[in-house]
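Request:
You are asked to prepare a plain-text protein record giving the amino acid sequence and the backbone structure tokens, at your earliest convenience.
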Amino acid sequence: MTSKKPKEKENKKPEFFLKIAESIQEDVDKGIARISSKDMKAMNLLPGDIVLIEGKVPIAVKVLRALGGDKSIGKIRLDGTVRSNIGFSIGEEVGVQKIEVKSANSVTLSPMQEGIKFSDNPTEFFHNKLMEKSLVL
């Protein structure tokens, strides 16, 4: 089960803490976190909600229910990319909080330096990489 910390009104610290576990293969590179139904209920989460994972670098991911029969109570299943981005490893505890999101009508990207070349269509590449992912601005 999740451990619950007291809320502090002025400090937006996470209310829930979960232990990191390895993701399932089908979630790799999709920006998905899996949490048990019991923990999702305690956090007032629905499948598809966005949560902020408070690692060394906070990151927003879409949350889905852990698969049936999965012993995930008190755990959050994250892939290696998300774990690397937050700077935490399997077995470590991270803060998790539901966040309110707004849908973007458009996102404009520009190279940070001149002369960057793409072998394929960059619009299609970024569209495929970013579609259905949480983007924090």
